[in-house]
Hints:
- By secondary structure, the chain is mainly beta.
- The chain has 1 helix and 8 strands.
- It has one domain: SH3 type barrels.
- Helices cover about 10% and strands about 35% of the residues.
- A hairpin with an 8-residue loop joins strand 6 and strand 7.
- The longest helix has 17 residues, at about 1-20.
- The radius of gyration is 19 Å and the shape is globular.
- The protein starts with a helix and ends with a strand.
Amino acid sequence: MKKRVFIIVIVAAIFALAGCGNNPSQQSSTMNHTDMKHSSSGEVPKGLIESKNPTFSVGSEVIIQSEHMPGMNGAEATIVGAYDTIVYAVSYTPTTGGEPLKNHKWVIHEEIENAGSEALKPGAEVTLEADHMPGMKEAVATIDTAEQTTVYIVDYNPTTGGETVKNHMWVTESELSTK
Length: 179
């Protein structure tokens, strides 16, 4: 009996340690969003233009098809805002220190310092004005991808339970489906 308990404890420890890996080459925005600001004030950046004809109108009920944070994928959501802009995935090292975050989704054009009027190209180095996570604001980042699309602010109920997340920024059109 003691031998079986010992083996179970060892196996559990191995699985626990395997989940604690910190390989920067594997670090991505979907791996560690415990510090991400789930809810926001809903205040949008200056210059952001409301979408005149979004696929999902304000008040629509949708399903989130992305896991930016635990409890998002499959969550029921309500559209709070829809805006036409350029959305970027970025890689950056937080100003607070720590490992670089790779392919963080999403930062919009209006959240980049001196972004200008044209889309930024992958590989461009920029300074972030976004404040979605500690250490993000004023961090130097590299653009990984850029896409002209409609982005949404949503209220959603996490599939993991807990309180409703209010004014979550940003979810792209391709990450939503009808309810």
